[in-house]
Amino acid sequence: MEAEHSPNATPPNPKTMYLFYGFATITVSSTLFLLPFIVTPALPRKLYGALPYQNTPTKHIKTALKLINNRIASKPPPNPTALPPQKLKFVDLGSGAGEATIQASFANFDALGVEINPSLLLYSRVASFISRPPSCQFKSTNLITLPFQNYDVLFMFGVKPLIEQLKPKMISEVRIGGLVCLYRFKLTGMDEHFEIVGREGEVTLYERTPSKINEYNKIKLNLI
Predict the structure, then answer these.
(1) Which DSSP string do the residues of the chain spell out, in sequence order?
(2) ∠21-34-42 over CA atoms, to 5°?
(3) How many CB atoms lie within 10 A of CB 32?
(4) pTM for this prediction
């Protein structure tokens, strides 16, 4: 039996259709935006190349900045004759939602957040636009090619596989007196290159020691 066709059927309510399409648009947009947060951490790293995203709690960010500022205050300024005084450079390696980078900027650092997740990068830039930090930017770049020697402070959430991969780069590039601040994990086996200068809870602050850098350079030259 064929379905009966009724030319006088009542058309859908336009308001209902607008609500439906609006809901569908919001649902699809939200899904696309949240995809890297939810789905990508479960995918093999070969497919995405990113580490699972975990947010650093605000209280630990505050602890990290306190340890960093206390250490900086205990040392003479690197260039006391500079006018105006130069801001120290802070980089968050894997900046996520951008909170640590933004807070570092408000703490008077020239702050950079490095993040490869496009959704997190967009979120960070929007958050920065809203909060208006004085000196803050976010970009997507390969951590292996990022010049660590250009920064006074390196901050990391501390994902162990990434730390292990970056250890040789830290040894060769972190400047004398440069600070490395880690949350949760530690720089194991790096006592000859970095000294612990602050620790509170799960946050550990390291400083590159000058004598160790000279020893490393001598070894490096002998190997060439």
Answers:
(1) -PPPP-TTPPPPPHHHHHHHHHHHHHHHHHHHHHHHHHTGGGS-HHHH--PPP-PPPHHHHHHHHHHHHHHHHTS--S-TT-SSPPPPEEEEET-TTSHHHHHHHHTT-EEEEE---HHHHHHHHHHHHHH--SSEEEE---TTTS-GGG-SEEEE---HHHHHHHHHHHHHHSPTT-EEEEES---TT-TTTEEEEEEETTEEEEEE-HHHHHHHHHHHHHH-
(2) 135
(3) 10
(4) 0.71
CATH code (residue 134): 3.40.50.150
Structure tokens at 33: 């935006």
Residue 7 lies in a domain: no
User: What's the longest Cα–Cα distance across the chain?
Assistant: 93
- Under the phi-then-psi rule, with left for phi > 0, alpha for psi from -120 to 50, and beta for the rest, what region is 27? alpha
| Token representation of residue 108 | 């008077």
Structural domain for 20, as ranges: 14-48
Mean pLDDT, consecutive 10-residue stretches, the chain (224 aa), reads 43 45 44 46 41 77 96 78 77 94 96 94 94 94 92 87 90 94 89 93 93 55 50
